[in-house]
Amino acid sequence: MTDSVIKDVSGRTGRLTLNRPKALNSLDLGMVRQINEALDAWRDDDAVEQVVVVSEHPKAFCAGGDVRQVRDAQVAGNSAEGDAFFTEEYEMNAAIAEFPKPYVAVIDGIAMGGGLGVSLHGSHRVVTERASAAMPEMAIGFLPDVGISWFSQHVATASGHPEPAIARFLGLTGYRLDAADLLWAGWATHFVPQDSLENFLRAVDADGIEAALVEFAEDPAEAGESKLAAFAPCARQVFGFDTWREIENALDGGKCSGEERRVINDLLRSAAPTSLVAGAELYAANAAEGVDLRTGLRNEYNVGRILRHDPNFAEGVRAVLVDKDRNAQWQPKTTGEVDPTPYRRAVGQ
């Protein structure tokens, strides 16, 4: 057996290497605890000036939280296991955001769901041209969590300010961002080409993150042209509302081109109606003035717990991760049949 998170100190760096390759580094409770233990150990260790998180997998940084384990336990009647996993995972997300030293995530491959929670809350989010990211939870009857429904609405995009409408578009549709999109959206802070990565990490260990970035980070434009930037005017028109009904009405109201509406509808095709309604309520709550990350995580936990106990969650995970037929049978079948009241109450509205 090998550790699913390899912890070591190299030069100035406390390094966390995600190492659960058969699961594309999907986070389970053991991995969450190992990361939390490392952060606790390194927080006041003068020999560790920075933390760097990387992946051993050639294609994946981290494919998310292991919701299949959560679903299996819940189907067996053990909902406490899922509650424990999400409680400790969200505490890890907050600990990363509050870590007093540079926390550097190097995303070189796929990062989804929980993989963004273990990376985007850090001070430095480095991507290569192979980076690819999404919050695809709508397709499993869940919702964007790990603090991303808060983070994405409070980080500045390339426009120079936060854009909640862009954040809601990304989370509610599960749009997949490439490296250029991640940089444009503010989810990534720096671009380092993949062929420079090994030398970059050596420089981080030897000279510190800021010196290494001066030497190896390239202009974000080198990552290519952001398709998300081109789509942003449409997303702002449609997703700048607090309820799913308003968003749906804006989409039907002809504010985007026919091709843009087709793209959005294609993205939404696999989404659970309950998740869309609940997700819109969550995003509205987490965009509110005065809401901090920990409050945002609490809102995610409260809404997410309702959804995890709904049969749609077990059905969505079955369709995507167990049988992989991508043919979930949602109940109810339309968003118009979903009552938003429980989700509003869950976020204190």
UniProtKB/TrEMBL annotation:
Catalytic activity field: 3-hydroxy-2-methylpropanoyl-CoA + H2O = 3-hydroxy-2-methylpropanoate + CoA + H(+)
Keywords: Hydrolase
Superkingdom, natural source: Bacteria
Residue ranges of the region described as Disordered: 328-349
Entry EC number(s): 3.1.2.4
Protein name: 3-hydroxyisobutyryl-CoA hydrolase
Source organism (scientific name): Corynebacterium hansenii
PANTHER family xref list: 3-HYDROXYISOBUTYRYL-COA HYDROLASE, MITOCHONDRIAL, 3-HYDROXYISOBUTYRYL-COA HYDROLASE-RELATED
Residues in Enoyl-CoA hydratase/isomerase domain copies: 14-341
Gene3D superfamilies attached to this UniProt entry: 2-enoyl-CoA Hydratase, Chain A, domain 1
NCBIfam families: PRK05617.1
InterPro entries assigned to the protein according to its UniProt record, in alphabetical order: ClpP/crotonase-like_dom_sf (IPR029045), ECH_dom (IPR045004), HIBYL-CoA-H (IPR032259)
Record keyword Transmembrane helix present: no
